[in-house]
Amino acid sequence: VPVSRIRNFSIIAHIDHGKSTLADRLLQDTGTVSNREMKEQFLDNMELERERGITIKLQAARMNYTALDGQEYVLNLIDTPGHVDFSYEVSRSLLACEGALLVVDASQGVEAQTLANVYLALESNLEIIPVLNKIDLPGAEPERVRAEIEEIIGLDCSGAILTSAKQGIGIQEILESVVLLVPPPRDTIDEPLRALIFDSYYDSYRGVIVYFRVMDGSVKRGDKVRLMASGKEYVIDELGILSPTQIEVDELHAGEVGYFAASIKAVGDARVGDTITLVSKPAAKPLDGYAEAKPMVFCGLFPTDADQYPELREALDKLRLNDAALQYEPETSSAMGFGFRCGFLGLLHMEIVQERLEREYDLDLITTAPSVVYRVTDNHGTQSYIDNPSTLPDPNHRQKIEEPYVKLEMITPEEYVGTLMELCQNRRGEFKDMKYLTKGRTTVIYEMPLAEVVTDFFDRMKSNTRGYASMEYQPIGYRENNLVKLDLMINGDPVDALAMIVHRDKAYNVGRAMTEKLKELIPRHQFKVPIQAAIGSKIIASENIPALRKDVLAKCYGGDISRKKKLLQKQAKGKKRMKSVGTVDVPQEAFMAVLKLN
Ligand code: GDP
Ligand code: MG
């Protein structure tokens, strides 16, 4: 097809506003996927994604569409992950497009992810087509939401398309608008090859499958290509389009989207954002803006059963083939034994990896509480990065500690502004700005230590606003604070896996809350178990878990049978995940106790 009849676009939306459902309808209406083949949400093909209803990995699909002008067009839909953890991937996949459908739930309105994604799209100079979805819902208010988008984003919405992805309303109109409004790619077929990698995954037979958009020039099967950031060279042994199943072709040219296989061993060798060029006729410069996604959150992963350590290593090695952002290195903990210190893009990424390890590799894991990466300057002025609180140098050996900060942008109905601000204030947030977006909707902006965000800020925000508020955050660099290491001791021994770094002003409260929480979570033993919190050699809080009585049910004083049952269930559950720390059995929940403090 000539470049003039190609359209590359993506769909951006806040989570749950209907992006996947709409993508399904587009594939169906263009006959790309037959009704019979159509499983709900074709593009979300990982089991985990399907269950959580989120899009983790981006994907692409090529559709043929005969427009009302009688011409046949090729429409490439490039799906973007909706979550902030993957914002680098979002920005890369948007660069592979000339336009974007901005999907907003007409019964809800603009949310934090809508804004964050629109800004990314505007930065990439995309043509944005507003779509008001879910108009079939009785609560849909397309007129209100239309005004809201115009007011908040400054986007002309007079031509916004009203759709119900669920009922298939407005789909034809979307396809026509893509053809009419999204500009065709630039025709640069004669220039040296430059292709942008926007996704990749590992296939055990063919090696890494690279998804890319040809920006300039063309590429053929058998070509020897170079990845400009990594400098590595490969021969393309399979080339094709995504329809959305892979179909081999001989050649792809500027404007087209496709995949190739070239016996690449791990996705880390073909990173998202890298530029592909020809070895025989290389481009002078790579495409702009390549960066490696850096882990922001770390935790320890330990097998419950020490014998599973080799299996855990193997599982991580395999996951890594598919996940360039996942980092890990061996960690030995005096309390936990052998395990790995793992780095993730964010909390969702962390959860996904943990869940996959347990589900797909059948491992029983104990995970420690998430930590951010601290920057420590020693007495000689040398900086180092600490991702494990237990390894923080003691105060005599350091000049200062800095921690990563983020800019947090929340959108909430007006009546929750107060509780939201209180929550942020309690989390060491610094108020920056507040704007009334439209009647009843407010955006609140704070700067806050990332450490305060990763300890279940999101869940608190949701529950404090009955689910109505949404948020996004962006890293804004390091800041110095008065931070101290808080140690927790069980039965007299410090447990390295429970060590944490906290602000000095909060240390006392956190120490007390932690000892109370651990007392609640750790089961009774045959002997008394003291729990203590300390800063350096100074004990700041302590509790005792009394020795076990013969009958656990004795404390239920008679009657309440359901309570007894609950207690028994709780015990049975607790048994599943225990780690012996010295002579004390500590359940998994205890290592996450910091996330459950009030
Ligand atoms: P995504 O997170 O943006 O990919 O959203 P999904 O496509 O997964 O949709 C989220 C939920 O909204 C699902 O339960 C869909 O069935 C539902 N949904 C999507 N589009 C519509 C629509 O047009 N009308 C109604 N009533 N529900 C919809
Ligand atoms: Mg989705």
Keywords summarizing the entry:
14 helices; 6-stranded mixed β-sheet; about 25% helix; binds guanosine-5'-diphosphate; binds magnesium ion; alpha+beta; about 600 residues; globular; 8-stranded antiparallel β-sheet
Shape annotation: globular
- What structural category characterises the helix and strand content? alpha+beta
Contiguous runs where pLDDT drops below 50 for at least 5 residues: none
Based on DSSP secondary structure assignment, what is the total number of beta strands? Answer: 33
Instruction: Specify the number of helices.
Output: 14
Oligomer: single chain
Taking the alpha carbons of the first and last residues, their distance comes to: 61 Å
Q: Which sheet architecture does the biggest sheet show?
A: 8 strands, antiparallel
Short description:
Helices cover 25% and strands 34% of the residues. The protein is α+β, with helices and mostly antiparallel strands. It is globular and about 80 Å long.
Plain-language structure description:
The longest helix is centred in the C-terminal third of the chain and has 18 residues, at 504-521. With 598 residues, the protein is an alpha+beta fold. The strands form seven sheets. Strands 11-10-16-7-8-15-12-13 form an eight-stranded antiparallel sheet. The protein has a six-stranded mixed sheet with strand order 2-3-1-4-5-6, sandwiched between helices. Strands 21, 22, 23, 24, 25 and 26 form a six-stranded antiparallel sheet that branches. It is 25% helix and 34% strand. Strand 24 and strand 25 form a beta hairpin. It binds guanosine-5'-diphosphate and magnesium ion. Guanosine-5'-diphosphate binds at residues 13, 15-21, 53, 55, 133-134, 136-137, 164-166.
